[in-house]
Structure formats: C-alpha cells, structure tokens
Specification:
The N and C termini lie far apart (34 Å). This protein is 41% helix and 20% strand. The chain has 189 residues and is α/β, with parallel strands linked by helices. The strands form 2 sheets. A 4-stranded parallel beta sheet has the order 2-1-3-4, with helices on both faces. The chain has 5 helices and 7 strands; from the N terminus they run βαβαβαβααβββ.
Length: 189
C-alpha cells in the first residue's frame, strides 16, 4: 500500500491564490504578512508582480467562499488560502457569518478538488484576533504551511491516480465539476 504525505520542498513550481477579507484589515493584513513570509521562506515568490501568487481582496469574510471557488475553477492554482477575521459582537451576526464562511470554503474545496485553506479567525474579541495574527503567534504562517503541504499531497495523489488538474467545469454539464480525465468529483451546488 502507498503512503501519501505532503512535503514543504520543491514549492517553487506551485501557484497559489490568496483571498483576503478587507473587513478587520488590522488583523487580516497581519495574517497576510505571516502567510507571505512563510511562502517566501519555502521558495515561493509572494510578490504581486510575480507569477506564483495572485491576490484577491474582498469586502469581508462572507464574500471569501465565492471568490475562492471561482479561482479554484480556473484550474490555475495548486492551493488557495483564505484569510479573514470575524469578531463576535453583541448581535447574532457573528454566528451567521462564521457558519456560512466555514461551510462555503469547505464546499468550494469539495466541489473543485483544489485545496482551499480555511484561514478565517473567529474570535470573541479583537485582542484574541490580534494575538493569533502576530502578537503571540501568526496563524498566517500556519495557513501557508497547510497550503504548501496540501498542494504537494494533491500533486502526489494526482500523479498516482493519473488525473490532471481539478477545477475545470465542462461546458453543458450542468455545473458538474470533473477531473481532467473526465472522472466526476462532485456536483456543484
């Protein structure tokens, strides 16, 4: 039997997209800096002018899943990193947004077969968010590590299974997401 495990080497051939929510940008900007630092230290050029990382800024965390799914469907990326911050307030808004963002990001990954990393902080206070975005540790680094590992892992699995890059929608197939070998992954919602 085979054992598949992602590595953090040879990342210079991978392409990434990073989707960042502007709302709570004090936090998301720090997450982005940690993410970029990790990618750079692992051989990825995070420069917006480079060829390895594309950036998509969205109004807030709620909009992240839609853009992440569209980027995954392009077939251009080995992994997508989603960065956002949802901080609890005094209304149920936090519960609705955090639930939909997490479900949407997971669904986008399942529907496209592209690793989509959930890097959306959901905290009770701004202080907790800042602690996770650089004061105590920067989870942006961790999210980039997950993307590197998953890109490597999926590359190994595709090589062994003989499938190509996921994320392409075939015309006239009612939203069915398929592998390049025409093996169906799932039906899009």
């Amino acid at each position: 039997m085979a054992v598949f495990e992602g590595t953090f080497a040879a990342a210079d051939s991978f392409r990434f997209a990073i989707v960042i929510g502007r709302f709570n940008d004090l936090v998301t900007g720090k997450l982005l800096a940690g993410c970029q630092d990790c990618l750079k230290r692992h051989g990825v050029d995070p420069s917006p002018e480079g060829t390895q990382v594309d950036y998509a800024w969205v109004p807030g965390s709620f909009e992240i899943p839609l853009v992440a799914r569209q980027l995954a469907l392009s077939g251009r990326y080995d992994a997508i990193i989603c960065l956002g911050a949802v901080i609890r307030g005094q209304t149920p808004h936090f519960d609705y947004v955090s639930a939909e963002v997490s479900k949407g990001i997971a669904a986008a990954g399942f529907q496209t077969g592209v690793p989509i990393v959930f890097g959306v902080l959901t905290t009770d206070t701004l202080q907790q968010a800042l602690e996770r975005a650089g004061i105590k540790a920067n989870h942006g680094w961790d999210y980039a590590m997950s993307a590197l590992e998953m890109a490597s892992l999926m590359k190994q699995i595709r090589r062994v299974s003989g499938t190509g890059t996921p994320g392409t929608m075939l015309p006239g197939h009612g939203g069915t997401v398929v592998e390049a070998s025409s093996t169906m992954i799932s039906d899009a919602v």
